[in-house]
Amino acid sequence: MTRLLRLLRHIWSIDACRAALLLFFILDIAFFPCIWGNKTFLASARDAASIMPYGAWEGQHRTPRFPKTLDEGVPGYLTEPWFKLIGKQYLAEKNPPLWNPYQDFGTPLAANMESQPFYPLTALLSLHLTPRTYNWYILLRLFLAGFCMYLFLRFFVSFVPALAGGVASMLAGYYILFITMQQTSVEVMLPAALLTGEWLLRKANYVSAVLFAAVLFLVMVGGMPESAFILLLFVYGYLIARCVFDAELRPKWLRIVTHLAISTVTGLLLSAILLLPFYEYLHLSFNLHQPGNIAGAVPGLGYENLDSSVIGYVFPLLFGPTPNDAFSGIHNYFGIVALFLAAVSVTAIARGRTKDAQLNFLTIFSGLSIVVVLLKRYGFTPVNAIGDLPLFRFISFT
Fold it and tell me: What is the pTM assigned to this prediction?
């Protein structure tokens, strides 16, 4: 018993272990019925029409006051059935999940990327798909975002503010609204990409290069090319800006660039099993990302009208519950806590409260990135022109 107590005290004394336990505890409180009870995130069970008009659940139907997420259809109609199909191909057919014989006359499966059959969490889930394992899959993605954000922030701040940032990331409003959507598998990798990228900047060795390459692979096989492109654009922009503006990093820029190039090439080569089929499928498929399929319109140039909906960033429920029959401003909401913390950080710099150059850079870079995203979203002409550049033109920013 004494040894056990010593072991527990030792674990608790390690900052990373203490943060992981606290993050899990918070996640446990927020989603207790899904972790320990009989509730499930499965949209095909009671939220989206499938075998029965109100889902696969055969019991009495109860219409919820509000839907769990902004989109119950995609998980219920696509991703959840795909998990079962992927598991069947892995276990019964013992084939890589490259083809879906049950849709139309047969369609590519892995090449659509959204099925994410090579994403580790998806592959594990597909091997044993139950309502409870699906819940763990969903919540592990949130935990990954929170814990990696904590580790990243520990480079710059102490335990408590880093933990606060981890909680804000793990329970970010955007993640919660789209908690079951396939793009979340990619977007929760942003903290991990920043963490391994910052580690590469500071160490510039082969271990850090391997870690960054592994994260790059996970981003690519996560199943959402648009999200992956924006994520990597932000991360590489951050790494380049850090090298340019940090006096400690500038003298070893060549070593950093060399290891970054090695890790990038390695990550892309590992992802080729998915990227090459996707590249071929992109030219053969009919999709809404190519101007030729939508009467010449360029998706990247789309934008939102700057109207009263902008207040939704601060008061997300002002226009009513999430999806409703009328207009709802929730679509431009990303999280009140994150917005509050960002405002505090910018105010602290503006008032000269912090002299830490690295922390100031992190705040300024993140703040400028948010400004650029908002200007693009609302069609500010010089910034909106980015949407007509190669690759950018295939992305819907609205």
Answer: 0.91
